[in-house]
From TrEMBL, chains A, B:
Superkingdom: Bacteria
Entry keyword Metal-binding: no
Entry keyword set: DNA-binding, Transcription, Transcription regulation
Coiled coil: none
Keyword Transcription among record annotations: yes
TM region(s), chain numbering: none
Gene3D superfamilies: Winged helix-like DNA-binding domain superfamily/Winged helix DNA-binding domain
Name of this protein: Metalloregulator ArsR/SmtB family transcription factor
Provenance organism: Streptomyces tabacisoli
InterPro entries noted in UniProt: ArsR-like_HTH, HTH_ArsR_DNA-bd_dom, HTH_MetalResp_TranReg, WH-like_DNA-bd_sf, WH_DNA-bd_sf
Residue intervals of the HTH arsR-type domain: 34-126
GO molecular function: DNA binding; DNA-binding transcription factor activity
Highest classification ranks of the organism: Bacteria, Bacillati, Actinomycetota, Actinomycetes, Kitasatosporales
Amino acid sequence: MSNSQMVELTVVEPDAQAAESVVPCCPPITAGELSVADAEKMAAMFKALSDPVRLRLFSKVASHAGGEACVCDISDVGVSQPTVSHHLKKLKDAGLLTSERRGTWVYYSVAPSVVAAMSAMLDLRG
Amino acid sequence: MSNSQMVELTVVEPDAQAAESVVPCCPPITAGELSVADAEKMAAMFKALSDPVRLRLFSKVASHAGGEACVCDISDVGVSQPTVSHHLKKLKDAGLLTSERRGTWVYYSVAPSVVAAMSAMLDLRG
């Protein structure tokens, strides 16, 4: 991947930050057709969970004692610590995790409203 | 897309058929760490929803009258009909849609157990 492509990825961040602070859309998929804007927002969230290692890390944070975890807690997934950090940052950029730096480590927790919105969107019972 | 690539996509089908007939894993992500095998299975499903056009098409099928739709019903998403068919096939291969050919058209409906499993996995209330 060229440097210019790396820069392109970074440009996406402001939107991702916005996703963290606002409860995202949407009504259940059975309720009607998603708008273009809502589909783009939700597709980015599903994309964050579309990598097996990232999904495992997400489950490790979500199920960790106290509801939060740092890289130091969850690095046993068969990839390097920088790769773990990279995946956690992607989950944060997509709005699925929030983070807080304390001392040396950044602690991650699940963003409940965002994950609940994804779950509700796929809930066919309603 | 070349013919050889089309053939490659077809090879994926046996696994996809299995995904359709079996309710997939998993417990809520807060319940514990996903296994490698479960993470791979679920990541593939989330990947199917990680494209905005595919997600819109999925919502169109899910919300269509009678709970099913063919390409002829849902082609107004700004891409060509072959592209719509390609996206619907990807959703089917991932186990999120089932299909039935009737006459000229293939009709797609949501695979309720698969989508419910994705929703349940992201349900933080339990």
